[in-house]
Structure formats: C-alpha cells, structure tokens
C-alpha cells in the first residue's frame, strides 16, 4: 500500500471516529435534557403582587393543573388545597381555557362541608401558554337576597289582592242592595274593615322595606321607653276594649334606649297589637320593662292561643302564618313580627319568644340601654 493511500485511510478513520464522538455527545446531551425536570413557568411581572392584595379569590394554575399562586381569600374560601383545585367544575373550565385560549365566565355551585352550597361566578383567562388565571367571586348572599326579593314581591302581590278584591265585591254588593238600607250599612262596614286592613298592610310594607335597607340609624337619639309604651297602648286601646281585654303596664320606670323612636314605637306597637289580636275575650295583656345588664328588656305577655313549638323558629318570617284562617279573622298582615325582628337587629338588640299552646306567649324585645350619663349630657 502506497504511503498516499495509507495517509488517506488514516484521515478517513480519524474523521469517522471524530464524527462518532460528536454524535455521541449530542445524543447524550439530548437524553440528559429529556431526563432533567422542566423549569417552572414564570409568573408575569406584577401578578404575584396583585394576587397578594386582592380581596376576591384569585389563583394561577400551570399546565399540570397545579396551583402555583393563590390569593389569601382563595385559600380561606377552600378553593385550593395542597396546590390543587377542589372544584371539578372549575378545573374543567381551566382546562378548556388552556386548550383554546378563550376567556370564559360562568356561574358555579360549590359545595361545602357544612351549610348550603356557595353560588360563585368564575372568570378564567390565559396568562401564557402554560399559565391560566381564575377569578372567583362569592355571589351566595346576592342570590339569596334576589330570591328573598322575588318571594317578597310575590307575597305582597298576593296579600294585596285579597283586600282589594274584597272591596271590589263589597262595592258591587252595595250597588245591588241600594234598596236595602240594612244591607248597605252591613256591606259598608265590611268595606271599612277591608280598607283599614289594606292601609295597615301598605304601611307595614313601607316600614319593612325601609328597615331592610341595612342602613345605619339616622340621627339616633335617647328614646324614653315609658312614653313609647304609653303611645303603643293608646293605639291598641279600642281593639282591646272591643274584646274586654285589660292592657296592664309595669316594671322598672325611667328606662331609655339609644335609637330611632319611630322604629322602637313600631316594634312595641306590633307586639302589643299581636297580643291583643290573639288573646281571648276578658283576658289580660301585660307590658313590662326591666334592665338586663347593658340592655333593656320590654316584655309583652298574653293569655292567647299560643304558638306550636315546631313553628317558633318561623314566626318572624315575612307573611308566615301559623293559622291563615285566624289571621284573616283578626286582620293580621303577617308582617308585624318581621318588623319587630328588623328593628331589633338595626338597634343591635334581639327579640325572643316563649310560648305554650293554649296558655299564651311572651315576646321580649331587648335593646341597648342608654347610660345615665348619656341621658343627662
């Protein structure tokens, strides 16, 4: 073999060996890169800071469905646990957004260990090819308020139809009985009764809607409980006299509370009126006051029909009636006790009831007591 050929073969073998070494290095590098864990996706600038101050529930999810960042409300809300979403519906929504990059917003129902489920709105948007942002707002209270308002409107409509329809029918009866003075007088008397009931219903609806605004008391002042009770008894004196019911007042005189005199008067008047309405003839209604630490207790005791034990928790609901027929005969609106409850809540107090069927009831309205130095200053 010539020296030239030997040199060529040596060069060729060297090139093959060198090429094999380079190829081996590249293969090894790729294998190592594939075996090495991928870097965590980096949060866009400012996202972590924004999430740390948000009051709403917010979280960022990576492409492994792991929560890499969450606001404090999201953790407290129970949406995230061990860096995972606890809602399957929200997790599905995040995956949909990651697939097509489209912003989505929907309402979800999220169960919780105790109590009714939460109603939330979720808005999910892509942050990058690997990160998705989810904002969750609790709408449970709003939905509950909307439901209450719908029920309230429906109940009001139903309640207004009764006296309005009765007045219409009685007016037609008066027209038909124009030649019978006794019938005209009887129908006219019933028309007055229904119109009075309608007037009370409208007035109580106005009072209740004002109280349900959850607004703080405007210009609260010292309220003399003795004066309020006296006025409340005077308002119900005619109804009590018609049934020969004695309304007796007693207890500790000179007590005062700090609040709205008109609202306190409405609450006590409703309690006294209820006691008179549901007491039998020739009975007694007692209205008494006493100090109780920092509160004033105003109790109204009757000897009426009483309230079934299993219905005590519902009597403060609007339009709730234990015996609808009984309420019709007494002209009750089903709103009086609800007004009492809202007045108590607005003033930082409460209302309690004790009752036994056939023996009567005791309603106790507790309101924050005015200190003597506040009264004299």
Explain how this protein is built:
- The protein starts with a helix and ends with a helix.
- Helix content is 49%, strand content 22%.
- The longest helix is centred in the middle third of the chain and has 37 residues, at 140-176.
- Strands 2-1-7-6-5 form a 5-stranded antiparallel sheet, sandwiched between helices.
- It folds into 3 domains: 48-138, Beta-Lactamase (2-Layer Sandwich); 142-215, Helix Hairpins (Orthogonal Bundle), CATH 1.10.287; 217-377, Histidine kinase-like ATPase, C-terminal domain (Heat Shock Protein 90), CATH 3.30.565.
- The chain is built from 11 helices and 14 strands.
- Helix 6 packs parallel to helix 10.
Question: What's the SSE blueprint?
Answer:
Blueprint: H1 3-35, H2 47-53, E1 57-61, E2 67-70, H3 72-77, E3 80-81, E4 84-85, H4 88-100, E5 104-110, E6 118-126, E7 132-138, H5 140-176, H6 181-211, E8 221-224, H7 225-242, E9 246-251, E10 256-259, H8 261-277, E11 284-292, E12 295-301, H9 324-330, H10 336-346, E13 350-356, E14 360-368, H11 372-376
Parallel strand pairs: 9-11
Antiparallel strand pairs: 1-2, 1-7, 3-4, 5-6, 6-7, 8-10, 11-12, 12-14, 13-14
Helix pairs in contact: 5-6, 6-10, 7-8, 8-10
């Amino acid at each position: 073999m010539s020296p030239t050929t030997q040199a060529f073969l040596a060069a060729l073998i060297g090139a093959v060996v060198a090429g094999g070494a380079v190829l081996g290095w590249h293969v090894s590098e790729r294998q190592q890169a594939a075996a090495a864990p991928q870097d965590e996706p980096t949060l866009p600038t400012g996202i972590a800071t924004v999430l740390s101050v948000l009051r709403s529930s917010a979280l960022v999810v990576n492409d492994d469905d792991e929560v890499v960042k969450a606001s404090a409300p999201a953790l407290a809300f129970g949406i995230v646990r061990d860096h995972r979403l606890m809602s399957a519906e929200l997790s599905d929504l995040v995956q949909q957004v990651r697939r097509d990059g489209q912003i989505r917003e929907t309402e979800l129902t999220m169960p919780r260990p105790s109590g009714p489920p939460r109603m939330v709105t979720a808005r999910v948007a892509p942050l990058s090819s690997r990160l998705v942002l989810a904002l969750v707002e609790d709408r449970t209270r709003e939905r509950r308020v909307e439901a209450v308002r719908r029920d309230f409107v429906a109940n009001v409509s139903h309640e207004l139809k009764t006296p309005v329809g009765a007045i219409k029918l009685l007016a037609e009866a008066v027209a038909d009985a124009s030649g019978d003075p006794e019938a005209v007088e009887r129908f006219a008397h019933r028309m007055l009764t229904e119109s009075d009931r309608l007037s009370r219903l409208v007035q109580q609806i106005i009072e209740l809607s004002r109280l349900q605004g959850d607004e703080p008391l405007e210009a609260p002042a010292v309220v003399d409980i003795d004066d309020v009770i006296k006025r409340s008894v005077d308002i119900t004196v005619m109804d009590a006299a018609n049934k020969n019911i004695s309304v007796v007042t007693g207890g500790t005189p000179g007590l005062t509370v700090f609040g709205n005199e008109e609202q306190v008067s409405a609450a006590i008047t409703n309690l006294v009126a209820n006691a008179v309405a549901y007491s039998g003839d020739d009975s007694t209604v007692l209205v008494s006051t006493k100090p109780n630490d920092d509160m004033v207790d105003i109790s109204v005791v009757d000897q009426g029909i009483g309230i079934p034990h299993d219905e005590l928790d519902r009597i403060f609901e609007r339009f709730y009636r234990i015996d609808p027929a009984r309420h019709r005969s007494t002209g009750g609106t089903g709103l009086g006790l609800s007004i009492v409850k809202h007045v108590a809540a607005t003033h930082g107090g409460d209302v309690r009831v004790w009752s036994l069927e056939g023996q009567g009831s005791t309603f106790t309205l507790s309101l924050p007591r005015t200190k003597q130095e506040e009264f004299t200053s």
